[in-house]
Amino acid sequence: MINVIRADMGRVFRKRSFYIIVLLVLVFLATRESKDTAPEQMEYMKSYLSSFLLFGVSIPVFLGIYTDDFNSGSVINLIGKGMSRKKVIFAKLLDVAAVLIAFYSVAYVIILIKNMAAGISVTPNQNLSLLVFTLFCVLRGIGFFAVASLIVFSTWSTSGGMTTLLVLLASSKTILRLLQLKFTKPIYDRSFDGLLDAAFARFDAGHFGWHIIPAIVIYIGGTVLLSMILFKKKEIDL
Predict the structure, then answer these.
(1) How far apart are CA 212 and CA 216, in angstroms?
(2) Are 152 and 158 in contact (CB under 8 A)?
(3) 54-100: per-residue pLDDT in tens?
């Protein structure tokens, strides 16, 4: 499986389109106007980290890790050579995690430099809070990619997976919050996004955000398990 991950990483990082899109996203982040105070700046940057940045980077990541591999037939070759379907699913999600961590690490450093250049007095605790939030953005991305992966491996359609991913990134929070408001039920609070928000709020207040456990176990773990079950039953031409 390690060789598969290396091959995927090599393919992703050889694509000029990947660097172009990522560079544009990071330049957009670096050129945003800074706020006047540290608290305002932190919230401002968090909004970009969790929305535009994740949306922007997810497109080239999905194309490089899923679409190119499926279109070239590499996944079928791996299975034909004896690699278990479970390992294929895990390898893809590990690819996603590695790229998202690398991307968000650069984004975090850019924000630190941006704050210093703007002369904003950000405390170490505020920088730590931003770092934790950045890690939560990575986790959110992995969760959404897990759902997209479920669509890909159960339907053998990368376009379906891409569409699912973009819909989740663009509107999942808004739709779930509206449903919660309309039906006065904790729909959003018990969703993946809601649990991550609650977990971060507790971590940010200096407590253990236990909500992160069901977010990972139920939503990410459950989705991966369902992917393995459906992919195992999927008939593909080797």
Answers:
(1) 6
(2) yes
(3) 999 999 999 989 998 888 888 888 888 888 999 999 999 999 999 99
Query: Dihedral sign, CA of 164, 167, 168, 170?
Result: positive
Query: Can you give the pTM of this predicted structure?
Result: 0.94
**Tokens coding 170:** 């663009």
Residue with tokens 């980290």: 49
Contact yes or no for 66/177 (Cβ under 8 A): no
Q: For residues 129 and 204, is the Cβ–Cβ distance under 8 A? A: yes
How far is it, in rounded angstroms, from Cα 196 to Cα 135?
11
What phi and psi values does residue 122 have, to the nearest 5 degrees?
-95, 130
Burial category of 92 from C-beta neighbours within 10 Å (exposed 0-12, middle 13-18, buried 19 and up): buried
Could you report the per-residue pLDDT of 163-197, keeping only the tens digit for each?
999 999 999 999 999 999 999 999 999 999 999 99
Cβ partners under 8 Å of residue 214, min gap 6: 195
**Helical pair 124-155 and 158-183, crossing angle rounded to 10 deg:** 120
* Dihedral sign from CA coordinates of 53, 55, 61, 63: negative
